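Our consortium's second objective concerns turning raw sequence data into structural hypotheses that experimental partners can test. To show how far this objective has progressed, the report includes one record in full. It was chosen at random from the queue rather than selected for favorable results. The single chain below, 570 residues long, was entered without modification.
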Amino acid sequence: MLASKYYIRTLREAPSEAEIPSHRLLLRGGFIRPVGAGIFNWLPLGQRVLQHVEQVIREEMNAAGAHEVLMPVLHPRELWEKSGRWDTFAPTPLRVTDRAEREFCLGPTHEEVITDLVAMDLDSYRDIPTTLYQIQVKFRDELRPRGGLIRCKEFIMKDAYSFDRDREGLDASYDAMYDAYVRIFERLNLPVVTVEAEAGSIGGTDTREFMLLSENGEDTVYMCDSCDYASNAECATAQIPEPVEPAGESKRELVDTPDAKTVEQVTGMLDTTPDRLVKTLMFKSDSGFVAALVRGDRALNEFKLARHIHGDELRMASDAEVQDLTGARVGFAGPVGLPDDVRIIADHEIRAMSDFVTGANQDDRHFLNVNVGADFEVDDWADLREACHGDFCAHCDSGELQAKRCIELAHVFKLGTKYSSALDATFRDADGNEDPCIMGCYGVGVSRIVAALVEQYHDDDGIMWPREAAPFGATILLLSPDDEELRAIADKLYSDLQGCGVEVLYDERDASPGVKFAEADLIGCPVRVVVGRTTRNEGKVELRRRVDGHEELADVADAVEAVMALLESC
């Protein structure tokens, strides 16, 4: 590609709102341009990177036996009502109404559509197993898009769905997709870690995420410093402390705490510490009200609570509901004296506490010296709290959990029959019985991978693309375009490299060497070839590997072979 004929629009400075390296460099390098918050145009350089990433994904998905389809962006409300997600998917999908007053959402994911498709076509057990995938635009109504391509309203995803006869078949399909993902990230030189994960609005079991550790990531994973345990923050578990002996009789004391509603206010007024207080958080579930108890210095993990009660619907109780249940304003709830139909679920850490502080279910009052057994009973013990940096690992004897920032790049689930049962995706088995398909779901954030590559591979001068994703494998800089001898050398090198299958950006523009060098580093092609003074004086071209700055000279006659060798090393 001749640079003089190509749409390259670099910037000297990135806009002030671009706060992380990938956002700044993709804007400066002319890969993307903003349209609105979380919405981007892909310029020719960015489109080439995107297509190369997609090609790697397609090759590995096809090699794993999956078949590519393309599904619509508009999803009828009726499909999402069948699955029960029209009103429950979070964040709420973007919705539109057509001229006939029919309602649609812009697809944030495609479980309903793919299941409906397969339901039309499947008949016999001989038709499965099968795995279908697409590379498609998705829409999610993010309140605060950030980080350029890291969190967008509109983004590109590869989503795949497997359909099997039984759980053993699902295990095999899941393993095939997992292995394909490993190969994808190996080819893209992204050192991901796989962690336990929460299924969220999609649902499912055996959920794993592929994470890239990055200080600019918006997710947190906890990794043990002694064993191979790793989990995202939503489901990370810590070691359970040893329980204390239960108190023989009640010693609780009622004290006034006027207007002290927060942990900080209560502990300050009572001259104690947050780890001596138990928070009581009231929730409404499908089956009734729940009081969740965690230590005062801990945060409740609502995913863990929802998983424990097996309820699809879980929300914080309203102020009015808390007042009705406890007889007190929000901030003064406690486990002592709650109605019998309120289910009390306590975090395991409460077992290790005695003589602690709780709300008294009276306005402006708390209890001191409260104890489980002597003052109230717990219906269920569970792991309810969010893990913290430095917690002891629950999976080995000596490790501690280390919190690390990361970027989520892929997610795999075992869905089971949640969608196939709801949308009648069934098959007849060998005995003629009709059974729902067993499904799996596998997603890769394609456009997010582009940002992750830049976060992983950049320096102060620009991007350092791995070969598989780079917009061009090599760039040729002709430093004296008016020199006919040098131009002939550069032209031939350009032609010969293309003949070897190398995609080349040939900068033959009438621009200063400084501009050409700066743009080459900013755009970040793996190998730079300079045809200039050294070529004229010594008959050699200058080669530079972008990722580590390695430089060497090559005779003009050997230049193609030298470039190919450098590319192989990238």
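The partners drew two points from this record. The chain has 14 helices and 31 strands. The radius of gyration is 29 Å. Both points have been shared with the crystallography group to help prioritize constructs.
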